[in-house]
Amino acid sequence: MSNEQGITADQPGSKPKVNPWIIGVAVSLAAFMEVLDTSIANVALPHIAGNLGASNDESTWVLTTYLVSNAIVLPISGFLVSWLGRKRFFLTCIVFFTASSFLCGIAPSLGLLLLFRVMQGAFGGGLQPMAQAILADTFPPAKRGLAFALYGITIVCAPAVGPTFGGWITDNYSWRWIFYINAPVGILAVLLVYQLLQDPPDLFREKKGAGRFDYIGFALLAIGVGALQVALDKGQEDDWFGSHFITTLIVIAAVGLVSLVIWEWFQKEPIVDVRLFKIFNVASSNLMFFVLGVVLFSSTVLLPQFLQTLMGYTAEAAGMVLSGAAILLLFVLPLVGRLLARFQARYLLAFGWITLALGMYISCKQLDLLISFRAAMWIRIVGYLPVGFLFVPLTAAGYVGLPKQKSNAAAGLMNFMRNIGQSVGTSAVTTLIARRSQYHQSVLAEYTRTPRFNAAVTALATRLTHVGLGAHYAQQQALARMYAMLMGQAQAISYVEVYWLLAIVSVLMFFLSFLLAKNQPGAGGQVAMH
Questions:
Q1: Do 76 and 2 sit in the same domain of this protein?
Q2: CA–CA separation, 151 vs 27, rounded Å?
Q3: Are residues 432 and 447 in the same domain?
Q4: SS3 at position 2
Q5: Residue 528: predicted pLDDT
Q6: b/e map of 452-491 (b: 16 or more CB within 10 Å)?
Q7: 158 plus 43 within the same structural domain
């Protein structure tokens, strides 16, 4: 069947013109490049600040501006596809993302770097949902699980390798190269997508019927999501509700997002199709994607932060702890893709959530200030491999009961919820560690008044005098060391508590998994829409 442009489009069940795996690699390459940029710049912030004459606080806006513009575009990507067509929209995003990446590399000042990061985040926002939607439409139902596994490799592994890769580039070359490396990858992705990708006829008809741009909806989205992202990124730094700035942002975000939902619900052609949440599987999968984003990024932040702040690990050594699980996940995801062809998605999800809860519980029991490198790596593995049993089935479950013409909008919502979950998870972990450390410090301080503590200080001071310190300095040094030990123990307890919280949340998602609609194994999560 041909559309009005004279381009032959593949129909379900027909033989594709090119191998779908080549298309899968091409679109996943673009998505990997974008996801990598959400974390690769983190370790380079001190270098960026020093090179551009900015403070460390100012340099954090390099991350914030990217996340804000990225989050705004994600949920409206389905609407933009109806305007431009999926292939044209996807190519536009890749081209301008690559160009803005190069501009970030040559930026002579922090102001211009932030401007280019806004552009990079905005054009990168369309890459993840479009890659997911293209894979869903390109592969036959029986192979859709494996296709989502390929997409999962890019989404799950990129944040894990980003900080390590970024640190290596920054230490051996320059922070500018973390942006330059996008250029050859982007050019290759453009050439592959231009040659291989085609818009199916239903998308072409949808493009022809596209209506006017919803300016009010877009304004509410930009205001609500922008305020929320800035509040999440700067909240702990500015003491949350102790800051008028953060309080104002949270109020603006709440009003903007609630108004957005109400406005879009009654629009004939909404820029964000919130009515999709009337489908139980869509609503549940979006909730799970949000929680997955929280748990995934929380655990990715927790362990390296613990190792670097309390155990004295370098950034490279902490990155090596994370890399083992990421490598193993490369083998787990294709396996889950095959299992999806034999088992219902909700059963795989239930297994993934309960295994993740078990991994968080094991982390609680193993995490302490005497942990070895090998034990830390195993904590990462048991807490990260279950994600493979979540991402692929969850992506498939999100399409159960969904009309095919809504796949682009649904993909945008799923990726948006996961990204918001990542921001919430990072902010929540940072805040909980700081607040609970203060609490446990005050509790442990009560024990400094006991005879046993005084005896320990005296014994340590005596040992220090034997190595040449004067009695007065030995006493001060003993007190300082005991205080540092108390602080370390207080922080370690707070990390354990956060792992406990993640385990509880995972158990709740385990029970929700059984409420999802049944899907036919091997049908890629699709059921007929009535």
A1: yes
A2: 9
A3: no
A4: strand
A5: 33
A6: eeeeebeebbeebeeeebeeeebbebbeeebeeebeebbb
A7: yes
Count the helix, strand and coil residues of the chain and give each as a percent rounded to the nearest 5. Answer: 80, 0, 20
Query: In whole angstroms, what is the distance from residue 315 CA to residue 324 CA?
Result: 15
Tell me the C-alpha distance between 342 and 345, whole Å: 9
C-alpha to C-alpha distance for 128 and 209, rounded to whole angstroms: 25
Q: Residue 315: its pLDDT value, please? A: 67
Check whether 5 has a pLDDT greater than 80. no
Annotate 11-73 with DSSP letters as a single string: PTTSPPSS-HHHHHHHHHHHHHHHHHTTTTTGGGHHHHHHHHT--HHHHTHHHHHHHHHHHHH
Q: Under a CB-based contact definition with an 8 Å cutoff, are residues 313 and 307 in contact?
A: yes
Written as one letter, the residue type at 257 is L
3-state secondary structure of 95: helix
CA 22, 331, 499, 36 torsion: positive or negative?
Answer: negative
Residue 257: domain span:
213-268
Residue 324 burial (10 A CB sphere; 0-12, 13-18, 19+): middle
CB-CB contact of 23 with 86 (8 Å): no
> In whole angstroms, what is the distance from residue 162 CA to residue 264 CA?
36
- Token representation of residue 110: 């922090």
| Spatial contact of 104 and 179, defined as CB atoms under 8 Å apart | yes
DSSP 312-346: ---HHHHHHHHHHHHHHHHHHHHHHHHHTTTS-HH
d(CA 319, CA 307): 10
Between the CA of residue 301 and those of 75, 306, 430, what are the distances in Å? 25, 9, 9
204: domain CATH number?
A: 1.20.1250.20
User: Structurally, how many domains does the chain consist of?
Assistant: 4
In a domain, 93, yes or no: yes
Q: Are 107 and 463 in contact (CB under 8 A)?
A: no
Residues 176 and 229 in one domain: no
Q: For the segment 18-75, what is each residue's pLDDT rounded down to a tens digit?
A: 778 888 888 888 888 888 877 777 777 778 888 888 776 677 788 778 888 888 888 8
Q: Looking at the structure, do residues 288 and 190 belong to the same domain, yes or no?
A: no
pLDDT for 27 equals 85
CA-CA-CA-CA dihedral for 18, 19, 21, 27, to nearest 10: 0
Q: Which residue has the higher pLDDT, 484 or 82?
A: 484
* pTM across the whole model: 0.78
The one-letter code for the residue type at 127 is L
